[in-house]
Design goal:
- By secondary structure, this protein is of the alpha+beta class.
- It has helices spanning 27-30, 87-98, 102-115, 125-141, and strands at 5-9, 12-16, 20-24, 63-67, 74-80, 117-124, 147-152.
- Helix 2 (87-98) crosses helix 3 (102-115).
- The two termini are 35 Å apart.
- Bound molecules: L-tyrosinamide (TYC).
Amino acid sequence: MREPTTMTTAHQTVFDADNMTTLPVGTLDLLTAASGPSGPKGPGKGGDDGSGGDGGGKTGLVTKTRPKTKKPSLYKVLLLNDDYTPMEFVVLVLQKYFGKNREEAERIMLHVHQKGVGVCGVYTFEIAETKVTQVMDFSRSNNHPLQCTMEKE
Ligand code: TYC
């Protein structure tokens, strides 16, 4: 791990830390940064007015930093209907792997039974993938043809 460092270069103030991106001033304003956390603000060495003026007749690129906070993609985990898996088994799956109470599990099971497909939950990629594997393994172990898949939201 490097320590965050502040260096004075030909480009004036450059902030360098792990997990931070450095952007030219002005770029920041184009991003939807209003809702997220942002880096140091206000006049520092070299100021933030974009002039680059330091009284020494030099010009340079003033930068600001902000933390990288990209939201992960989400995935729906789906159950598919079939003619053979017992309703009670599907209800058990929904309670065991998706944290549903009896009432909600019955509602989702009946929805899948009537419509052909239904959403069990929405998760990040790895969690969704794990749920699909767990349900498929559990169904196969119990000799049921129940199918579980995932799709990007
Ligand atoms: N259609 C099944 C039956 O009548 C019940 C069922 C519901 C199966 C949902 C799968 O994902 C499913 N026994």
